[in-house]
Design goal:
single chain; alpha/beta; nine-stranded mixed beta sheet; eight-stranded parallel beta sheet; binds pyridoxal-5'-phosphate
């Protein structure tokens, strides 16, 4: 059936495996985040890598976001072409073609880029001048994650000086993502390590301001640290992404967001009393951190034991007795790498399909 033909149908009737978002839970997650941030007076520029879906990006803007973060130039293009007015490409962009694309995008919308290398700064500046664009730049500080970012305050100051010297680009602030803190299960430890990372970033921002540089934006944080950074004096905006969907990893942290994203799957075999095989495998759900869990299995428990390309083999407790053809919702351990497997998501309200949203930036 042509995909839009599923609109209005009960979710149990859609072909599986299918990516499903419960739009009421999604909307509540947006409202919960917006209410919290309004109280603490910190901005959000949510990370669109989580959904890669313009329809959700626009919902985030309507819920008060000041723009979106994107992981790639392609993602940023899709969001801008859909009408998002401001994007931050929250990764270093260095290859000449991608720099050219980012700079040209800055002629269509406000584009912020992050940098950790002086030569890259000069290349972005040269491209910006060549195409007559103005690109806003944040200098990236490693706040403990050990990925990209300047490794010392001295290196960051040098970098910021290079940005200031370079025509065509404009220094707007500092960027420091505390990725190493997001999933720490113990709240006290997560808070201490989050505050340590935020402290490093804010101190760097003050140092640059003290040197007379323009630091309006101090940006960090994901879903696991949204309220730690949200309340940290000097952090101006957060980059959380997964809070809209949640997943098995974030579910363990006791955050106030609901699990809005699932993968619907069908039982295709009951080869033994304690085994059910479902039609979702590695091509339909990401087991990046651990195996998915199964929701709505009635009184019994269903545990995913292994995944192959198209199948999940599950072990059933005595009380669980799903029949071939039964459908159940799986929760992935990581929402972002699961969404990326699908071209579209079924948007469900009260058990019925209300819309089908293209994951338009999937391959971008
Ligand atoms: C730069 C950056 N900011 C923010 C995030 C936050 O993402 P989430 O809220 O999905 O954990 C990520 C996740 O990988 C990231 O790489």
């Amino acid at each position: 059936m042509y995909a839009q033909g599923w609109i209005g149908m009960p979710v149990e009737q859609i072909p599986t495996p299918a990516l499903v978002v419960d739009v009421e839970k999604l909307d509540r997650n947006l409202a919960t985040m917006a209410d919290y941030l309004a109280r603490v007076k910190t901005n959000i520029r949510p990370h669109a890598k989580t959904h890669k879906t313009p329809a959700i990006g626009h919902k985030q803007m309507r819920a008060g976001a000041i723009g979106l973060c994107c992981a790639t130039v392609g993602e940023a293009e899709v969001m801008v072409y859909s009408g998002i007015p401001e994007v931050m490409i929250a990764n270093e962009i260095v290859d000449p073609l991608s720099v050219r694309r980012a700079v040209n995008l800055a002629r269509q919308a406000r584009v912020l880029m992050i940098v950790d290398d002086p030569e890259n700064v000069r290349n972005i500046g040269a491209a910006a001048r060549q195409y007559g664009a103005m690109v806003d730049v944040l200098v990236d500080l490693d706040v403990g994650q050990g990925r990209c970012g300047a490794r010392s305050l001295e290196a960051l100051v040098e970098l910021a000086r290079e940005v200031e010297r370079t025509k065509g680009i404009r220094l707007r602030g500092v960027f420091g993502y505390e990725g190493h803190v997001q999933f720490i299960p113990d709240r006290q430890e997560r808070t201490a390590k989050g505050q340590d990372a935020n402290g490093r970033l804010v101190r760097a921002a003050k140092e640059l301001s003290g040197l007379g540089m323009n630091i309006e934006i101090v940006s960090g944080a994901g879903t696991g640290t949204y309220d730690i950074a949200g309340e940290f004096p000097g952090i101006t905006e957060i980059q959380a992404g997964s809070y809209i969907f949640m997943d098995g990893t974030y579910q363990k942290l006791g955050l106030p967001f609901e699990q809005s994203l699932t993968v619907l799957a069908t039982v295709v075999s009951r080869p033994a009393a304690d085994i059910a095989v479902f039609d979702v495998g590695l091509k339909g759900i990401s087991p990046e951190r651990f195996n998915p869990s199964v929701q709505n299995c009635g009184t019994g428990a269903i545990e995913v034991k292994s995944l192959s390309e198209e199948h999940s083999v599950t072990r059933l407790s005595d009380a669980a007795d799903p029949r071939p053809g039964d459908k159940m919702h799986f929760i992935p351990s990581h929402c972002c790498t699961t969404v990326n497997l699908y071209d579209s998501m079924f948007v469900v309200r009260q058990g019925r399909v209300e819309a089908i949203w293209p994951v338009a930036a999937r391959r971008a």
